[in-house]
Design goal:
Elements (H helix, E strand, L loop, with lengths): L1 H18 L104 E14 L5 E3 L4 E6 L5 E8 L9 E8 L2 E4 L5 E6 L21 E2 L30 E3 L3 E2 L3 H12 L7 E6 L7 E4 L8 E7 L2
């Protein structure tokens, strides 16, 4: 009987230990002590009693003390809750990346810088003295007066005309200037009896002024022998080139006419001066002709060698 109780107690302890999680080997059988034939029965005292572990959990089922169940080890969880890994960032698609379209820069309207209005050109006026003058006599190809104090223009009593050549240096007028006025003046110191008309024609060929001097009163009107470079009725330069037309090469149309001794500004006179400002090499000056050729209409004029020679007053504007 005692042995049966001991076995029961051991089974109960085994179940308790198993419920506490201890790994207790399953006993296959409990040996029974043989019944002594003689003598008093001795009571086996267990040498030790296993310590009772403090259970941490209460088993969900109560074992049946009438049988010894087979101990089953508690299943160890193989894994805890499955952790959800963060989603990997999407892999960009392969291929040629589209070139981003540049954002157009808004245009800024430029405000034009106001410019100062042009300053009106200020008119300027120059009064120029002749740089060359001479008298030529009809029918006298060797007669001149380039260096004397007087000039002769008009027709004498025998119907022989005299003509005057004059030229002015226009380099004082700036290139590009616009000529707005031109006036030519001469001074007479002796006049004939007939009222003449004098015309200015632009010369179309160059000519010279020598040193000849026709003299003074009484004899000056007859002229003097031409010297080198003197212009005569037949030659532009004595000893050199001749006129294409005797009496001078000039434009057929007069630029201005007068019955006095001054030529006021005209469109043609202005054009003559403008052309010479623009092209100095074309500046050959003017020839003074008495027309229509009235006898005894000769005028004696002061030359540039005197104090009141021919003059040209030019008004112009320049930038």
């Amino acid at each position: 009987m005692r042995m049966a109780r001991l076995a029961t107690l051991l089974g109960t302890m085994t179940l308790v230990l198993a419920a506490c999680g201890a790994n207790v080997p399953t006993p296959t059988s409990v040996p029974l002590a043989s019944t002594p034939t003689a003598g008093p029965a001795s009571t086996a005292t267990p040498t030790s009693v296993p310590a009772t572990a403090t259970p941490t959990a209460v088993p969900t089922s109560t074992p049946d003390p009438a049988s010894v169940p087979t101990l089953t080890a508690l299943a160890t969880p193989t894994s805890g809750p499955t952790a959800t890994a963060p989603a990997a960032p999407p892999t960009p698609a392969t291929g040629t990346l589209a070139t981003p379209t540049a954002t157009p820069t808004p245009s800024v309207a430029l405000v034009p810088t106001p410019t100062a209005p042009p300053v009106p050109a200020t008119p300027a006026t120059l009064t120029l003295s002749a740089v060359a003058d001479a008298t030529i006599w009809q029918g006298a190809g060797t007669t001149a007066s380039g260096g004397g104090n007087h000039l002769y223009v008009g027709t004498n009593g025998r119907g022989q005309p005299r003509r005057v050549l004059i030229r002015f240096d226009l380099t004082g007028v700036p290139t590009g200037s616009v000529v707005t006025s031109a006036n030519v003046n001469v001074t007479a110191n002796k006049s004939g009896s007939a009222p003449p008309t004098f015309a200015l024609h632009p010369l179309t060929a160059d000519w010279g002024e020598g040193s000849s001097n026709s003299g003074g009163n009484g004899t000056g009107g007859k002229g003097a022998s031409a010297t080198i470079n003197d212009a005569t009725w037949t030659q532009r330069f004595t000893g050199g080139a001749s006129w294409a037309n005797e009496g001078g090469d000039f434009a057929a149309t007069a630029s201005a006419t007068t019955t006095g001794l001054g030529w006021d500004s005209t469109t043609s006179l202005n054009s003559d001066v403008q052309a010479w400002v623009n092209n100095p090499s074309a500046n050959h000056g003017w020839i003074i002709i008495e027309t229509p050729g009235v006898n005894r209409a000769v005028r004696r004029l002061d030359s540039r060698e005197s104090s009141q020679g021919p003059s040209l007053t030019v008004t112009f504007t320049s930038n």
